[in-house]
Amino acid sequence: MARTKKGQAVDTSIPASGKLEDDVAAVYLPAADLTPWDKNPRRIPESAVLKVARIVATVAFGAPLLAHDPTKRVIAGHTRLLAFNYLLGLLDKFGAPQPGQTWPEGAEAPPEWWPTLKPATLALLQQRRLPVRMLAVSDEEADQLAIADNRLGQEAEWDYEALANILRGFGSDAGRLLTGFDPHELEPLLAAEWTPPPIGPLPGQEPGAGDVPPPPPAGAVVLTPEQRVVWEKALVEARDLWGEELAEGAALIEIAQSWLAAHEEDEEPEPAGKGTAAEDF
Fold it and tell me: Domain extents for the chain?
């Protein structure tokens, strides 16, 4: 497959020279030329679009979109495309930000971060182009890549202690919000004591040996790493259904109530099996 760059046909496969440096990593295409995947099974909330738009505007346009060559159908980057089009709407309505610019009280105004729009992002918006990596793959392979791009990110887990330390280092709430976390998520992360105090040696141990962290609070459910993976997947689905602002405790209630409603007419439930409820989760 080929694409056009400055009037010349460019092969999107690895070049015949075998040198990857001869390949074109990304091209700048008009946003209007890109077509979203009409079968996309991922639902993109407005909150996600606004977060990405703010990051693109005030930090940088990071990774390029992935698109199918030659159809220009988006494979990865649907949220970035929506965010870019949102920023285009701001530019068309309010123009490029000017130093010291203000808007009359009560008048429609852009978001408070609009005056901090980066010059590089403004240049992309003025040309109405964004970076895209074109992939010469089959339609089926494009679908597989699109799903994998979303699914495989769910395999990773947060090291919350390391995350909290990084977030504290940003020094301001405005900087922390540029990570995509909401205030209700940041608050417990920043307030937590990640190194619990020791409670002393276990019976039969020498003083100072075998210090262990305190037990979890009464009623707490402690998940194994494998169970945590399942729970985080369920949490993603719950927030897709009931809103990104849903806290973990509220999500657990919604999931439990939905399960009970679906099974309230069932016969007596099957035995839970061996182990505690947490172990069978």
Answer: 24-100+109-155, 157-194, 218-264+275-279
